[in-house]
Amino acid sequence: MTAGTLFDKIWDSHVVRHFENGRDMIHVDRHLLHDITSVDAFNSLKAAGRHPRNPELAIATADHMVATLPGRNESSFLPGREFVQALRRNSARAGIRMFDLGDPHHGITHVISHELAVVLPGLTVACGDSHTCTLGALGALPLGIGTSDVEHALATQTLVLQKPPAMRIRIEGILPEFTTGKDMVLHILGILGADGGNGHAVEFAGDAVLALPMEQRFTLCNMAVEFGARIGLIAPDETVFEYLKGRPFAPDGKVWTSALKVWRRLYSDPEATFDKEMIVDAAAIEPIVTWGTSPEDVAPISGRVPDPATYVSPEGQQAKQTALDYMGLTPGTPLEGLPIDTVFIGSCTNGRLGDLRAAASIAQGKSIAEGVRAIVVAGSASIKRAAEAEGLDEIFKTAGFEWHETGCSLCCAVGGDVVPEAKRCASTSNRNFEGRQGVGARTHLMSPAMAAAAAVAGVITDPRRLRE
Q1: Contact (CB, 8 A) for 407 and 68
Q2: I need a labelling partner for 467 at 20 to 30 A (CA). Which of 31, 119, 215, 439 fits?
Q3: What would the pLDDT profile of 243-299 be if each residue is shown by its tens digit?
Q4: Pairing, β 424-427 against β 342-345
Q5: For the whole model, what pTM was predicted?
Q6: What are the structural domains of the chain?
Q7: How far is CA 444 from CA 71, 182, 280, in A?
Q8: DSSP string over 258-316
Q9: d(Cα 125, Cα 389) in Å, to the nearest integer?
């Protein structure tokens, strides 16, 4: 038998048909639907007289177009009400399980799907959202798709795709204190750039990756798309199995035992070859922050804003100068000490319980700086309840943070949450594009601990300074 990568093993086992043009028809094991990309797909399906083929293999949730302010309902953000109602109506008509507002398991689709164990190792999972790659941390094969493919997956339970090339990024060594999976992926972005993994299925491997808790593995895979990867995944291990055991949709009893035997064979063979490989020294990674308008625009917290003139190509120089103009920054400015106006802790990147614990450990016993608005948004209702059971909400509220309901919120300036024009936000989300958090908003991506430190200090701050 030919040696194969983890990606090969999952992809090849799901091929329904090979086409002469080189594309494959892939069976979709799980389909995740949310309030934005599903509406047009359901409308097209209805117009064509078709119905979802396997509604039992799909789940739905309203996460983008919802308010997160305490006491919210579907009418709290009026522009999103039609989207939420349409998803509710379409899901009921199709027989798809929806985790609606008020449901004890409501939350961001990329969060609830793993915490409920809807997605499992070795499965293919499709969703009309590029950050579906988050779920590769379970050893699943995540497929972020567009609206037309959402319709196709609903109608046929398949997708027709070109098999992407494979890439492996090995991160070896031990991460320094206060350095996280978020810093790890931002560091990689600084090396590769926004297209360094373009179109690849990227496997993260190495001692430093396997040492990460599940929540930071999700963060790492979540941002693979930011350096152009089509897919991000990590071979499942005992950390994954322990995480999944006993969750609502996880197998149990003899089925669990049988599943483990299969899951333990999901790894890249030692002789497997990759189209691209990269090795990263974990010990060289510091807490990282972005300075520009692409996740590739990164520097360590000890660094300074770079000079666009140092970029090789005229196009690169112009792009970085445009980014600095938008961000209101000048070359040589130290990143530590930059004043901020808003702090956002949440999103499918960093809205999990471990993220909230890390931020709360910085905020405890302190108060946010005058003039700063700081928002904490748990990734799911379950995470919110767990955080409240530990008293994390009280730590945040006592420090002056706002404690919100679940949703995408300031990650993409929906649900009524926006950063005012020309204001600077320390954010734990995944994108710092122009206008991503509001018209003219200036976003700096960072870890939860660093975001909490910025809230307390009122400036971008090395979290190691506030460890006590």
Answers
A1: yes
A2: 215
A3: 999 999 999 999 999 999 999 999 999 999 999 999 999 999 999 999 999 999 999
A4: parallel
A5: 0.97
A6: 6-163 (3.30.499.10), 166-236+268-284 (3.40.1060.10), 288-466 (3.30.499.10)
A7: 29, 13, 23
A8: HHHHHHTT-S--TT---SEEEEEEGGGPPPEEE-SSSTT-EEETT-BPPPGGGSSSHHH
A9: 32
